[in-house]
Design brief:
The chain is α/β, with parallel strands linked by helices and 230 residues long. It is built from 9 helices and 8 strands. The longest helix has 20 residues, at 67-86. The structure holds magnesium ion. Magnesium ion binds next to loops.
Length: 230
């Protein structure tokens, strides 16, 4: 049987959030008493811990993020996102073709779908739920596992080995993302990589990086499945 582990990035790959910055900035204020703004940095492909550091650096603020502060920020972020989603202030939706794709992949025996994302686990899972993807995806590695994106694929692979009952070879694992950082993480882990032009980077730009496959979006389910399993 053909066995493959597909590890999806979230933002820009599977989902897009409207007004997510409001909750993020609110959590910064609640935790640190400072007005940091996520819109002053390029968060794409980065982990939440590094995004937070970037925001303070961009504002020339010297902030020591202790373990305690970090835990408080994670909790505040979860609460702010939950509140913003419930009040309809923030919306999370799946990108075109994504629902069809994960449903299709869920039907194929031997295909395992997981995540590798810079989101913290609690907020990442919240976004997946809000986008209607929670029933299909969740297990993997998150920004709360490490601030270094390049170690996340290995963590996800190990967790999946526990579920599958054996480790899959790296060449049977594919990272699916929307930024050069996703590709970098795949390469560092000797995994395949499919890049999609539904985020900040245009498909032409991503194609120049020579990933194993590159698509403008996920609207052609058959083409995505072929790119993933071919
Ligand atoms: Mg992304």
């Amino acid at each position: 049987m053909l066995e493959r582990l597909i590890l999806f990035d979230l933002d820009g790959t599977l989902i897009r959030s409207l007004n997510g910055f409001i909750a993020f900035n609110e959590a910064i204020y609640k935790t640190f008493g400072l007005s940091g703004d996520i819109r002053t940095v390029i968060p794409d492909g980065n982990t939440d811990p590094l995004i937070l550091e970037d925001i303070f650096t961009a504002a020339n603020m010297k902030v020591e993020i202790t373990e305690e502060k970090w835990r408080a920020f994670a909790q505040n972020l979860y609460e702010s996102y939950t509140d913003a989603i419930q009040r309809g202030l923030m919306r999370v939706f799946p990108l075109p073709g994504v629902l069809e794709l994960v449903r299709k992949l869920a039907e194929v025996k031997g295909i395992y779908q997981g995540v590798v994302t810079g989101n913290l686990e609690k907020t990442g899972r919240l976004k997946l739920e809000a986008a209607g993807l929670g029933a299909y995806l969740g297990l993997g590695a998150y920004g709360s596992d490490s601030r270094n994106r390049n170690v996340l694929p290995g963590i996800a692979k190990e967790r999946w080995a526990g579920v599958i009952g054996k480790p899959l070879p790296s060449r049977h694992c594919t990272i699916v993302g929307d930024t050069p950082k996703d590709l970098d993480a795949a390469r560092k882990n000797h995994m395949r990589c499919l890049l999609v032009g539904s985020g900040r980077y245009a498909v032409e730009e991503l194609g120049l990086l020579k990933p194993d496959a590159c698509l403008p979006d996920f609207t052609d389910t058959k083409a995505v499945v072929e790119a993933l399993l071919g």
